[in-house]
Amino acid sequence: MNQRPLSPHLGVYKFTYTMTLSILHRITGVASSVGFLVFAWWLMALASGPNSYETAMRYLSSPLGKLLLVGFTFSFVYHFCNGIRHMVWDTGRGLERAQARRSGWFVIVAALVLTALLVWIGCAAIAPPAGGS
Amino acid sequence: MSLRTPLGKVLGRGSAGDGTSHWWVQRVTAIALIPLTLWFVISILGKSLHHYAAMVAWIGQPWVAVFTILLAITLSWHSWLGVQVVIEDYVHGKGGKTVLLLLSTFLHFAAAVAAIFAVLILARS
Hints:
By secondary structure, chain A is mainly α. Chain A has a single domain, classed as Up-down Bundle (3 helical TM bundles of succinate and fumarate reductases), CATH 1.20.1300.10. Helices cover 76% and strands 0% of the residues of chain A. Chain A has four helices and no strands. In chain A, α1 (17-48) packs antiparallel against α2 and α1 (17-48) packs across α3. The termini of chain A are far apart. Chain B has one domain (20-124): Fumarate reductase/succinate dehydrogenase, transmembrane subunit (3 helical TM bundles of succinate and fumarate reductases), CATH 1.20.1300.10. Chain B is 80% helix and 0% strand. Chain A binds chain B through residues 26, 29-30, 32-33, 36-37, 39-41, 43-44, 46-47, 50, 53-54, 57, 60-61, 76, 80, 83-84, 87, 90, 118, 121-122, 125-129, and chain B through 27, 30-31, 34, 37, 41, 44-52, 55-56, 59, 68, 72, 75-76, 79, 82-83, 86, 107, 111-112, 114-115, 117-119, 121-122.
């Protein structure tokens, strides 16, 4: 194997939280891709009839299903907010270190607040009907 | 002296032959996804997801079906480009990289076609 050092040398940089935000954009992007596969599967279950839809909803409203949905929600919301941050950078704005750090904090807070809000509202949307029908 | 042909200079495409189109389409789909996902998330949160007939009736409406299909195509396209870059950056073996890129492409096309087909069925029922 080639033993020569590879660039970039990530280890030589002092850690900053904006690095974490950067890699989180990719991680949440890949997680959202898995979420898209679940979305397509859910649509197919809906198109396949009441029985397959009921089975799909049973999986989604199980404890593991709910945990995954919360994960997908956070991933999507973070990727959405940070994606807008990236597109503002693409216009050449907000690239100063202080600005990038401030927008980073804004994205973290916005993602957490929006995730909490969506999960809270989503609980009502995914709750089984009270009378059971 | 440049070895590039005049046509090559004008087209401005690199050695891969596609220039900035990957980067650009990633942005175009990202912009389209802002209203599409906002619309879908806000709409679906107002529904009772366990109510099968109501969900079928909602997605089956012509404009809802059209925008759900647009959402599926744009999500799949954006996701396909993004996952491609992640695989290219982090998977170093040539064989593994090729297999994963193929798998990602097949999965994205299959999921997009499944979503579109499902919405078309719902629109006809």
